[in-house]
Write the structure tokens for this entry.
Amino acid sequence: MSSTNVPIGPRDKVSDVLARDESLIEIFVRAAPHFGKLRNRAMRRVMARLVTVEQAARTASIPTERLVRDLNAALGLTEDRPSAEAPASGADAEPVGERHPEGAPVVELDVRDDLRRGREPFSRIMSAVAALRDDEVLHLRAIFEPAPLFTVLGKRGFAHESTPHAADDWSVWFWRPSTPVAPPTVVEPGIAGPDDVPADDETTRYLDVRGLNPPEPMMRTLAALETLAPGHTLVQLNSRVPQFLLPMLSERGFTWEIDDSRQDRVLVRISHNS
């Protein structure tokens, strides 16, 4: 079946939806004025590639099912994907079990201007997270609920709480809970993974992102590059060529080589521009 005949699903990225037909922006806007920011190309460049249809609907406080139905209707399709494609029962939307601790030292980080200008704020956020003391809370201000961060930082042991002040103004707090939850086992840079992942050596680190849902492969790779020494190489093992990552590497001063000679994996060798 042609991809143009495949119905849109809740887990599809907004960027992929708009790549099929940019006029679908008006379906988003009709569903909620909140989505008017998608008309701004700079805004769309950051927001649309990180957020799924389900996350966008939740951020705008509208039913996911209705938004999916309207998008498919605009394409002349019916939403008849198998149940496996339906969103997990609120996996990304589970409420936080506790509010951020009152009285804890707060580190403020405002990325609203970055997002409005189309700049990717992930490096700033991860730098702030890396510098956060165990007793501190990160207070992030953004123009939409940064749902992809919840999964990424949750695997690092962080809890979160989010509150909208307006459709384009959110406060999100991240902190390490007093009773940490053991993160799932994942392959991190410098840690041996499956049998087909080579061991690190003095100048090369390997990062296996196969099997991870977007945007985690991109976020993990950018986080690993924050500590990549000049003259060293990070090799990302992926299931496909990471098209959205490549322009971001250029923006950050990295060069890359792609080896897609094998059917079961793609190697992306990343290093600093010399």
